[in-house]
Structures are given as C-alpha cells and as structure tokens.
Amino acid sequence: MHKLNDDEELYLEQIALKIRKNVVRMIKAGKAGHLGGALSAADIIAALYFKIMKVNPQNPGWRKRDRFVLSAGHKCLALYAVLAEMGFFNESILDTYGSLGSKLPGHPDMYKLPGIETNTGALGHGLSIAGGMAIGLKMDGLDSKVYVLMGDGELAEGSNWEAAAASSHYKLDNLLVFVDRNTLQISGRTTEVMNYEPLYKRWEAFGWCVREINGHDLKQIVENGTDIPFENRKPSVIIANTVKSKGLSFAEDRVNYHYWKATPEEFQLADQDLNELGRRIGI
Ligand SMILES: Cc1ncc(C[n+]2csc(CCOP(=O)(O)OP(=O)(O)O)c2C)c(N)n1
Ligand SMILES: [Mg+2]
C-alpha cells in the first residue's frame, strides 16, 4: 500500500486538472463529445497512470506491464488525455479529435493508438476481457495486475455479472475494478433507469472483496488502488463515489452533460472554472 504525501497529492491534482483541460480541448476540436463520464473519472485515471500502474510509454507492449481496460469506452477522452500526458504519443494529436482519420475515435481503438489495451465502447464487455487477461497473466507466471474502469450505469448490462461470477470462481486476485459511481447514466439517475443498488452488497454476493471511497480524493484512490488484493484469492472492487462532469460548475451532476455539444459561452465558462482551479493548485 502506498500512502500519498501532500506533495504527491498536489502533483496528481495538477495531472487531473490537465486531463480535464485536455478533455475540454478535444471537445472543442471535435465540436462535441462525452464530457460527464470523462470528468468524473479524471482523478481515478490520473492516479492509475501516474501512481498505481506499471506501464512504459516507450514500450507500450512491455510484457510485464499492468493492463488497463476502459470498460466504459465512452470515457475515452480522459484516457487519451492521460496517455498523452504520460508520453505515449505527441500531445498535438489531441487536436485531431473528431477529424477524419484521427487516431482518437469516439471510442478507443487499440489498432490506432499506442497504450490502448483493448477496444471498448459497447458497454458490458470490459470485465470479461479483463478477466481473460488476468487468467492469462497468471498462466504466464507474471505478477502484473489488470485494472478496469466501469460506469455505474454500465452495470445494468447482464454480461458484467457473468464476468463478475467467473472472476471470483477463478480467484482472480490480480484484478481490480473501479466503479465510477456518479449516479447518472445516459438518460437519468441509475437508480431510476435500472437500479443495481445496493452495489456494495451485490459485488460482495458475487464473491468480490469490496471497498467504497470518495473517487475525487486522490489519497483514498492511491491508498486503496495500491493495496490489492484486498484479500488473497479474491478479485477486488472499489466503488468510487464521484460527481458527473466534476470540475465544471454549470455541468456537475447534470444528465444533459453526458454528451456535450457546447456553445461558445459554455466553453468560456469551462475555461474560467478550470483556470480558477489551476490558480488554486499552482498551474
Ligand atoms: C451496449 C451498449 N448499450 C448502450 C450504449 C449507449 N451508452 C453510452 S454511454 C451510456 C450510459 C453509461 O452510463 P455510465 O456507465 O454510468 O457512464 P458515465 O455515467 O460514467 O458516463 C449508454 C447507455 C452503449 N455504449 N453500449
Ligand atoms: Mg454513471
């Protein structure tokens, strides 16, 4: 387990802010994009890449790397931003979002961009893929881990629960799921569209070791994310309570910012909010 000190926390806050700024930058370039889920997950993704996982931007296919599966593929703007920040590719590629032939499609494509482990976008498949990776790593005698980021609305896909059962059956203690529980999905509150609460008890009933954290608290994310397995011979899941569109005051916790086709006035507001946050944390 790694405990973040204050300097490390500030550094990760700065990375998370850069991710948020670059998410908005890509949406500006592409004229629209999935905003809310990228921003609710920005802190988790910053912590994963900059503190928790072993990856090598100079050698994306390094055999001993940890694997990251963005099961909720529509959050990919946050993934593109962190991969650019890590140096997997030149940051200028971010400005091609939305243009023909871009390496940054609306959902991630492992054949187009270094650092993408698997194609996602159709919800409900990432956990099955990750389970297969986790089994494969064990068979190869590697101690690498598989990290998965899922949406809370995504959990309504039944295939997830087959994968959850299989992961505990095969004792995949090299697997850690983050559920970004922002309580919204595409068309409303998750509890109203398709209720899967209480999440904690459901995961537990499927044989997982469960923890619940504040998904914007970088200390909690790192402390728990570096502490796996929570229990030997069991897969681990962190239910991360978050706010959809976190960081943009006019959009936070509002369903209509799941996908954002912004007006120039809204872009101005977004820049104001993020620059203000930057002034507070020194960038
Ligand atoms: C199989 C499938 N059905 C429907 C969709 C359309 N869709 C895209 S995002 C989304 C909502 C996802 O909500 P959640 O998992 O909570 O994501 P977040 O709130 O983090 O954006 C839906 C239904 C999809 N991508 N795949
Ligand atoms: Mg959600």
Structure, described:
By secondary structure, the chain is of the alpha/beta class. It has a single domain (6-281), classed as Rossmann fold (3-Layer(aba) Sandwich). Helices cover 40% and strands 12% of the residues. The chain is built from 10 helices and 7 strands. It has helices spanning 6-30, 36-40, 42-52, 76-86, 126-139, 159-169, 190-193, 199-205, 218-225, 264-281, and strands at residues 33-34, 67-70, 146-151, 175-181, 209-214, 236-241, 259-260. A 5-stranded parallel β-sheet has the order 2-3-4-6-5, with helices on both faces. α6 (159-169) links the parallel β3 (146-151) and β4. α1 (6-30) crosses α4 (76-86) and α3 runs parallel beside α4. The protein starts with 5 loop residues before the first helix and ends with a helix. The mean pLDDT is 98. Magnesium ion (MG) binds next to loops.
Apparent shape: globular
Major sheet strand order = 2-3-4-6-5
Number of domains: 1
Number of strands: 7
- Evaluate the radius of gyration: 18 Å
Report low-confidence residues grouped into runs of 5 or more.
Answer: none
Helix content: 40-55%
The biggest sheet amounts to: 5 strands, parallel
Ions and ligands: thiamine diphosphate, magnesium ion
Span of the ends, CA to CA: 29 Å
